[in-house]
TrEMBL record:
It comes from Nocardia halotolerans. Residues 6-33 form a coiled coil. InterPro entries: YbaB-like_sf (IPR036894), YbaB/EbfC (IPR004401). Residues 138-148 have a biased composition (Pro residues). It comes from the Bacteria. Keywords: Coiled coil. This is YbaB/EbfC family nucleoid-associated protein. Transmembrane segments: none annotated. SUPFAM superfamilies: YbaB-like (SSF82607). Pfam families: YbaB_DNA_bd.
Length: 173
């Protein structure tokens, strides 16, 4: 091998080393930013009210309910079936809002460096930044089945009033 060939190989080796060092710095910065976003998401809370304003649900960033508030007048204005529907509705709204917020928060990371190779593409066994980001995005919630109204269609406001007048909730009369 000539000196010229050896110098060329050294130059290519040095250029590759600089590229890997740059990717490692980029990876470290991205990892630190993702850790900060993860901490923020751990503290994130999303809340939503049902359409009838009887139920408020609070969820974490993953859309998992952590608190449910029921207005005191809900027991006067609603039936258990309708109240269940209100809880379901508020929970689903929260889950969608939480997923949207997570996607907005992580969007800059998904678009960063899409034209660059991932670290795992260059260094076998190295962690993948793209895989890490994708694992942090919650999956969209599935639609829960809607509670069914009574099948005979005979339920009306008068029945609701009778229900509340004749029930022995809270231990009796």
């Amino acid at each position: 091998m000539s000196t010229h060939d050896i110098d060329g190989m050294r130059a290519r080796n040095e250029a590759l080393r600089d590229q890997v060092d740059s990717l490692m710095r980029s990876y470290t910065e991205q990892r630190d930013k993702l850790a900060e976003v993860h901490r923020q998401q751990a503290a994130e809370r999303v809340s939503a009210w049902s359409g009838d304003n009887l139920v408020e649900v609070v969820t974490n960033a993953a859309g998992i309910p952590i608190e449910v508030r029921v207005e005191p007048e809900a027991f006067k204005r609603s039936t258990p079936a309708k109240l269940a529907q209100s809880m379901l509705e508020a929970s689903q709204i929260c889950a969608r809002l939480a997923a949207e917020r997570s996607q907005q928060t992580l969007a800059p990371f998904l678009n960063t460096g899409s034209d660059l190779p991932d670290l795992s593409d260059l260094v076998p066994g190295a962690p993948s930044i793209r895989g890490l980001v994708e694992s942090m995005i919650p999956k969209p919630p599935e639609q829960a089945p809607q509670p069914q109204a009574p099948s005979d269609g005979s339920h009306d406001d008068e029945e609701e009033d009778d229900y509340f007048r004749n029930q022995r909730y809270l231990g009796g009369r």
